[in-house]
User: Which sequence fits this backbone?
């Protein structure tokens, strides 16, 4: 009997170890803020939207496309340091309650440049804790989704939705089970 007990505890310990490694690797992946290369375009209404977004191994950076007085589009480069500065300024407004990123949607697509950068890259620029805190704000999450029109963002959102809708149990079966309404009597 002791032999069976030690095997059972060994299996439980092994399973716990596998579960712990899985959790730790997931936490490590969560904590790594993914740097981004963005193309942000000024709209006719003066607001900005992300039109291209790609993950990058190097530091975050952006190309800003703006319209001059004649309507011509000019492009300028924005470094990670400039992006962090704008994001930090906008985050200070979030804390004061004056940021457009936390106001309810006005129907207009886009936001100001600082709000757009904060909405799309808060985690990689200011850290995951701030990014997660912002995404817990319903208005911020809605505004963030509306300002990012890149194909990468739509693809990432679709992958996230499909992962959350098909949860698997430990034994590999789907998490959404339906039980019939049969009554059993003993």
Assistant:
């Amino acid at each position: 009997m002791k032999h069976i007990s030690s095997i059972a505890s060994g299996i439980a310990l092994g399973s716990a170890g596998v579960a712990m490694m899985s959790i730790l690797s997931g936490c490590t992946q969560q904590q790594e803020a993914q740097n981004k290369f963005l193309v942000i375009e000024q709209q006719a209404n003066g607001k900005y939207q992300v039109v291209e977004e790609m993950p990058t191994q190097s530091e975050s950076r952006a190309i800003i496309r703006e319209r001059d007085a004649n309507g011509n589009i000019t492009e300028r480069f924005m470094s990670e340091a400039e992006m962090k500065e704008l994001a930090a300024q906008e985050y200070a407004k979030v804390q004061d309650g004056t940021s457009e990123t936390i106001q309810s949607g006005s129907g207009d697509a886009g936001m100001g440049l600082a709000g757009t950068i904060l909405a799309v890259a808060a985690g990689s620029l200011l850290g995951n804790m701030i990014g997660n805190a912002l995404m817990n704000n319903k208005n911020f999450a809605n505004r963030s989704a509306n300002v990012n029109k890149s194909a990468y963002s739509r693809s990432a959102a679709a992958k996230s939705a499909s992962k959350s809708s098909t949860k698997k149990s430990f034994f590999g079966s789907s998490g959404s089970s339906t039980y019939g309404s049969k009554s059993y009597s003993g």
